[in-house]
């Protein structure tokens, strides 16, 4: 439900916008005067005769259409002054470009992920690209034509539902042409206006008893965006409410059977998913009414619909015998509830565009009905109703330029256009893409980039992209939502997934602080983060002052524990970072030996395990495995508390980010619902120590007192480790040679309820030191009672 503080703030913002709208207020009052004048003249007998004579001679009809065309022209010009192309539009442009280039309908060549929901619109944009017409030009021209079409169809609709009141100017057309929400999406590059036009066209065809054409328009709207299926289905239901028109339903469903179903079967086969990837990204199956109600409230205030909505309902009820009115009452209601259910949208007003013309036309109908009553009180009420709908013309956007309020933004202010070309894009993303191509791609680099705003950046850079929010990534899209927030931006890849994907550059950090600064690479001032130090890639970037990065090799060479005096857990994490970021990519034994010499001097207990502390460019460990303690037999472990309710797990628990570095089942103290707040412990059955060295994979938070995995010998902890504030699990190494032949167990303990208060463990293996007899495979640990 809407809260009082929200409504108060909306009213305050609305009131603050009114002085800026003064020219629009005066213009709307003049329009109201012109609209009312014929209704006043009807009270004068001589004027009434002239009006009816003009009506019979079709002079008023021609004047009405002339004014409609004038309104459409004004609306198109106004839309051009607000010209923009949304970042999301460029996602479709990239799909279209890859299709034209022969890569298929994909975002990244070779990856079939349906990261768009506007199939028909993407094809319409792709067709001119094949002959050299850019998608920016095509999308904006099509949107402007559809906007003009919406204005024209609104006048046709008004004339049809108000046959007894054809006097006065086409008010609905003027309101739509001046409305900020409508003119804003008169460009945008999105399918929004095309879908609205097709929905209105379907209604127009149905009203003229052309069910096949109505169905074709409805299917086109649905294939432009799946949300419009609500209007296609509801219009079919409306036809069924008329007994004399039920035979038309067979023709109405024909395009669905012959066009939509084959398309749906194709896309299911092509992408392998029942729904588009964006459905899973937004978790559209969940209820998000709290944000949906906020979205509608913000939209109603911004579009000036406070009085329009109740008047439109009244107008539809008065004309309920007409299919258009029933479509608004049935389809409009279902669509409104649906939008509220999914949490609305992050773009101000976008989901209202398809509904707004219907609301305005039926609100106008209610006004006309009141003005034509033979009752002065009703006429006065009609005049007041007319004044109450004039705010539709006022640009009272309660969300400011460049602002994100209540998870909603006026996206037009983020992506303005100077011209109908790629050079006309005014956005930091555009400049970042140009810098990337100039400094990296043109030097022979072909990096995979992880980014959040992937539209403009992805289209202009034309490099492989991983969408941090999951629109074009199946793995991220299928993650559960950790916390509700801005629709479409609630899921995040996390550093571990980007590390596992081995992207080259990311706009988000991959490693936790303080290591993130060591992975930063700046291209013309734009910061990126690397998942690994790849010398071959970085060597191509040298020689430019606009490229800045930390040479981690120097950091490793200068690393001196005696000077830094790290704690044991910090030392372990430093080695983890050096290993994951550098040594796993390079067999640099000389540099590693120098590092380990300084490390073992500071921490002598690591001397016997120094040869396996660091990777050797992915080479296998120089040891023989002796025994493995896995998590594929949960009966070997005893759990306490609520941390290990799901034990073991093969994937992150709901609300946890991707985990990298595990193999099969692993221990994870993060629990459903309680998340990091869960506490508890897990202890393995006793086993015999048969190796010299024990390795294990650890991830999660860093807390040497509250988050630990320990080796227990005679019930006492003799070795212990903790995480590094990361879901990237890394290797820890213990020297266990002195405990050979003794009974032991592993205890995993989570006593922390703080942020990142969980620990993960996997791959506990005992190894024989170099020179001992080599085994072919690690033997499973057998508890002593089973020996």
Could you characterize what this model shows?
With 787 residues, this protein is of the alpha+beta class. It has a six-stranded mixed beta sheet. Strands 9, 11, 14, 17, 19 and 20 form a six-stranded mixed beta sheet that branches. Strands 10, 12, 13, 15, 16 and 18 form a six-stranded antiparallel beta sheet that branches. Helix 5 (87-100) packs parallel to helix 21 (455-461). The protein is elongated. It starts with a helix and ends in a 7-residue tail after the last strand. Mean pLDDT is 90; it is low at 772-787.
How do the strands and helices of this protein lay out in sequence?
Elements: H1 4-17, H2 22-41, H3 45-56, H4 59-81, H5 87-100, H6 119-129, H7 135-161, H8 171-178, H9 180-184, H10 192-207, H11 211-224, H12 229-240, H13 249-271, H14 277-281, H15 289-303, H16 308-318, H17 323-341, H18 356-371, H19 376-389, E1 404-405, E2 408-409, H20 428-439, E3 449-451, H21 455-461, E4 465-467, H22 474-477, H23 494-501, E5 505-506, E6 520-523, E7 526-530, H24 535-539, E8 547-549, H25 552-558, H26 561-564, H27 568-583, H28 589-602, E9 624-629, E10 637-641, E11 667-668, E12 680-684, E13 687-688, E14 693-700, E15 707-713, E16 716-721, E17 726-735, E18 743-750, E19 759-768, E20 779-780
Parallel strand pairs: 3-4, 3-5, 9-20
Antiparallel strand pairs: 1-2, 5-7, 6-7, 6-8, 9-19, 10-12, 11-19, 12-18, 13-18, 14-17, 14-19, 15-16, 15-18
